[in-house]
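Handout, section B. The chain below has 382 residues.
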Amino acid sequence: MTSPLTGQLRFQADGAWVAAANATFSFALGGASVALPLQALAVGYGPVSVGLLTATSAVSQMTCRMSLGRIMRSVPDWAIVAAACCLLAISCVLVVISGQVVVFVVAQLLQGVARAFFWTGSQTHVVRGDGSSVRALASVNLVGNLGLLLGPVVAGLLIGDDARAALVASAVVAAIALLPASRLDRLPPFERIADRPPGRMWARTGVWEACYAGVTAGAWRGLLGSYVPIALIHAGHGSLTVGILVATANATSILGSWLVRRVEEDVAALRVMRLGTPVVGASMAIMGWAAGSSVVAAAALAVSGIAAGALQTLGPALASDGVHQEERGEAIAATGTWRAAALFVAPLVTAGLVAVVPIGAAMVVTGALMAAPFGRWVKPSA
């Protein structure tokens, strides 16, 4: 029989490996999110094409998340996390080797699957204990956002006149993330429950509200990884400044996650989420309107990061706490699917707008749409 002390030490060791995997993977992803669109621009693709490529990644992420609930009944979460590290490394290497459109499409598809695998797998892993889901997810997001903070800054330093150096670095760090990922506790796959409630998972009370929060957070992340860097470049900022400004948003999302770590009652969580959604959209609109000012752009990105960080933590926590323990993976995957859908739609909408208006104006419109109360928090029928 395992003693309480042995169990506690094992729990602490697993937490350390989760933190290490999140830090390294997020660092690699943060660098790639800045370097990949800039590499696409460098080899001759225009802003519209970059938006479409980013949307391709979101499609694969969304499609993958739709199946992850079923996959996690057969495959353990640690294996899903490890696979994500491999896929991210491969996607970075591909665009270093070739600038062909097919290669960029494949790289974006792989990156989308890597995002889906890693975030769903790691978040599911930490909420399977007996502690607070909000605190567990806040810890995961804290460490992950630290990686997303440093990744763009280092990428900006490495890019110079060639984004391939940053992509190579991201690939190496993603491969390193395999070590901690392979050391996670071997928790079994989820079991099917006999008394499962009828209807779709995403339409359940608590899960639906979490899904809507995921829509806002996904749109924010989609723009941060596509048109935010491009809008800043077009406004005259250098690659290092762009990296720092993107890192500003990622840094304040750490603060947002930390501020809500003690929000454990559903009513309080819903209030924060209802406030956060319009704040994210309005802040992104302001960033597009004042992209030429590094001070205003930094302030807008900072505010959007705080609100998005809160949504990224509270949404999955609310969803996982509202379902059976053996359904937690499926609930988190459902919120991630809606997040990935927004990750697809936001750059696609912006790409369509860029075809007819300047990129700054396109960002203003997209941000305004994110903040608009179109049926917000209205629960659909199951």
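Note. The two ends are 44 Å apart (CA to CA). Compare this with the example in section A.
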